[in-house]
């Protein structure tokens, strides 16, 4: 039995995850679990976990860490009461020797005692906030994937993890750019403020009509291209590291956490506004 | 030759670090390198680094990670161009088997090829901001150490690291508490917003006049006690883990980085306001 997107959209996060876990839903998570932090996923062996965590710490805009599992424990207990990372994501990508080797809907058979799971904040969070402020996002209105580009911005390496920063692009009316910067900077766990505004060539992008990932979005009169650090960056770093086995979410198919989008810190038990206990 | 605090106060961070490195200054760093992020220090062997980094990620209010070294490399290259963590802190505490075994002014002889150095944000940052807003801080005006208490708030464990959250207390005029919360919440790399406002008993503190660390500050009429997560928390977790050898800064004797206090992300190369390149 499958549950439709429109029904799931109105359900709380625990029910959405239950539907995903029960194989009743295996599609994208945009718009689900409204108000809650969604996360990209990277699972890799403990032997590379410290270097990967250092890579994320050094590149917090593309790789904002929202949760890290204990080694071998699939329960992401800081992000929700019942999150089993082996089953609670709608679709997973399996990488072997740095190459995509297939997609699956659970990783119960692939889970290893030496695995460490990383949850990294994603752009859905600030996109919701921009839409609520009345800023239209072309890719959402046209049901396409946001255009993403390999920029000329170097990330800070850590061990085998390195590479250029991948950025996502959204056309923003010139008069609202400052507002967009202010809104997105409120979400440091979701890429924060843009990394670049204006001329794409300044960050090594020669053709906005030919994104490296996702779908092209048209240039709009009176609007400027605004670029955010993108969660594909760690996927590229993982691919280029060429680890024997590593698992990510399938793009768009995120982990829905119990952490508020407005949380000061990524811990669902500390979800009080700004964490202050009075 | 030694250089006086009043002279150093007017010097840029690189000169302050040079004086510390050259053994010309070995005292506290409050008020030095104005406008720059200062950091607590924890150095431990790589075998415990992943667990310690998970502990900090899970407890970001007491343990905000601002930088992590490569294993065996003492240069903290994300925090400044020339920071050698073996020499650039005025005084270090050496812990053996979880017990304080002495203090030194450099660790050139103690540095190991398997060491990983962690820099963690400290309260100096938001204290400067509060003072600039005209909010008096008793311990600074009276040249004492801020009172710190072992609270009843549990931290989230990771491997051998666990324990209660240590909090620092500042008396704040009741009418300015909201402002103080708003100001300190701008500095998530420096403990962010308070964890508790008001009745100390609610977080397990029975006697404000008897702090566990630092000096008592008097209760002031019209003021309420405000409690922040404190950087002594990871020191307590390290002590209770009982590692054979681990090194921290001596309290008050911090690392002065080249990262702006206002930086969105802890990387001195990305110090543009909010990191936006336009």
From TrEMBL, chains A, B:
Protein name per its UniProtKB record: Putative hydro-lyase EI983_13040
Range of residues in the leader sequence: none
GO MF entry, a single one: lyase activity
Similarity comment text for this entry: Belongs to the D-glutamate cyclase family.
E.C. code: 4.2.1.-
Domain of life: Bacteria
A family per Pfam: D-Glu_cyclase
Enzyme class: lyase
Keyword field: Lyase
Keyword Lyase carried by entry: yes
Keyword Cytoplasm belongs to the record: no
């Amino acid at each position: 039995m499958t549950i439709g997107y429109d029904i799931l959209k109105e359900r709380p996060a625990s029910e959405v995850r239950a539907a995903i876990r029960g194989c009743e839903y295996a599609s994208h998570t945009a718009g689900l679990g409204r108000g809650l932090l969604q996360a990209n996923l990277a699972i890799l062996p403990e032997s590379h976990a410290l270097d990967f965590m250092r890579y994320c710490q050094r590149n917090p805009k593309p790789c904002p860490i929202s949760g890290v599992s204990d080694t071998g424990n699939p329960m992401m207990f800081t992000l929700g009461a019942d999150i089993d990372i082996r089953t609670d994501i709608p679709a997973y990508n399996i990488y072997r020797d740095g190459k995509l080797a297939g997609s699956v809907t659970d990783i119960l058979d692939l889970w290893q005692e030496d695995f460490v799971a990383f949850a990294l904040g994603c752009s859905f969070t600030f996109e919701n906030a921009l839409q609520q402020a009345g800023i239209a996002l072309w890719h959402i209105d046209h049901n396409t994937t946001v255009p993403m580009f390999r920029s000329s911005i170097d990330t800070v390496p850590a061990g085998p993890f390195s590479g250029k920063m991948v950025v996502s692009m959204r056309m923003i009316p010139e008069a609202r750019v400052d507002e967009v910067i202010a809104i997105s900077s409120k979400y440091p766990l979701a890429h924060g403020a843009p990394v670049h505004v204006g001329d794409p060539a300044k960050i090594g992008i020669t053709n906005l009509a030919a994104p490296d990932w996702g779908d092209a979005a048209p240039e709009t009169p009176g609007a400027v291209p605004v670029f955010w650090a993108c969660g594909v960056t760690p996927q590229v770093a993982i691919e280029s590291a060429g680890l024997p086995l590593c698992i990510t979410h399938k793009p768009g198919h995120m982990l829905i956490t119990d952490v508020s989008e407005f949380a000061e810190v990524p811990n669902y038990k500390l979800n009080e506004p700004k964490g202050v206990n009075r």
